[in-house]
Amino acid sequence: MFSTIIDPKNSGFPPHFAPPALKLPSGRIISQTPAILNHVAPKFGLAGEKEGEDEEEARSTVNQLVLTALDLNNETHDTHHPIDVGDYYANQKEAAIAKTKAYRASRLPKFLGYFEKVLESNPEAKTNGGTYLVGSTTTTADLVLFQVLDGVSFAFPRRIAALKKSGKYDKVFALKERVGGESGIKEYLTSGRRQKYSEGIFRHYEELDGEE
Amino acid sequence: MFSTIIDPKNSGFPPHFAPPALKLPSGRIISQTPAILNHVAPKFGLAGEKEGEDEEEARSTVNQLVLTALDLNNETHDTHHPIDVGDYYANQKEAAIAKTKAYRASRLPKFLGYFEKVLESNPEAKTNGGTYLVGSTTTTADLVLFQVLDGVSFAFPRRIAALKKSGKYDKVFALKERVGGESGIKEYLTSGRRQKYSEGIFRHYEELDGEE
């Protein structure tokens, strides 16, 4: 387990602000989720399938979409800790209820609408089924959006059911199904190796959920 | 001016969630500050001075530090909009006062302490004056930390004065002086071309500032 500020004596330079962190084969440790994903994406064929001069640009586009999906992740976290990340939920419940109302009504639909537009406007959407954010191969952007949607569905099942029913975000929900059914990911999800949601970023509090 | 979701018909694929965005020579537009910085850093010699196999790793380390400085940026923004980014400050002032109290007491010192540790533990600190986050050349991480410190100093002058006086973050404040005095940056800062702080991320509300 990482301490919040990892001791540089044990982890090399620089120290790290918070988990997660990844140790590279060289011994160097990289923290910050988007930095880790951007570093490993090309090594696993998850940075868009372009080659040559276009490779770096496709990688940055994937990075851009990862960062936006993680912005939704962070806003979702903040719904239950709007005042002080170092204090208990119970001590900021009133503010959490107010923040979550705005999140459910405005922020969440705005993010889903944005990703629906990305999926719709992918030039390859007509031939790939419309569930790939970039090109026609799985990228880290697809994986992060899948994970965030899964977490939001755990935290706000009533709101997500209503948004699904609206029919406005069909491609976004189809992406979630497609990624969750991919070979390897499907087996992982049902393996028991995946940590259950509990007191982390995605929390289910009945009083924070609602159809609207 | 960008609309919030840039129309893909006018900006190519994909659309963008929010400004800023940068148009590349190829015509492709990249949004999300960390994605833009990570894309351009190597082209301007701002990604650490390593070469060969170590180049990508140094770039990712710089990216990691940029992301952490931007986390402080985002938490600073949220002090005046803790409940609803779509509503006025006046309508969430009480929650803002509560959030800012925790920000001033815990979050801000935690970030400054982290960057002080990074500066201290840079293996080249003994020979470069100790004001470079990575190696001995200016990186995007230095530039972002400078900008965030500058904004926080505008928003919370009393708190920053007290933190400066504590002597615990001398290297961090020395970095701010060093970057602000660099050739090119110095001229820009005094040129009148730089936008003044007003109703953006960094806002000064007397009731949100304090020595502690």
UniProtKB/TrEMBL annotation, chains A, B:
User: Which Pfam families would you find in this protein's record?
Assistant: GST_C_3
Look up the record and give one Gene Ontology term from the biological process aspect: glutathione metabolic process
Q: Where is the GST C-terminal domain?
A: 55-198
Superkingdom, according to UniProt?
A: Eukaryota
Gene Ontology molecular function terms on file: glutathione transferase activity
Enumerate the InterPro entries for this protein.
Glutathione-S-Trfase_C-like (IPR010987), Glutathione-S-Trfase_C_sf (IPR036282), GST_C (IPR004046), GST_superfamily (IPR050213)
CDD domains attached to this UniProt entry = GST_C_Sigma_like
Q: What is this protein called?
A: GST C-terminal domain-containing protein
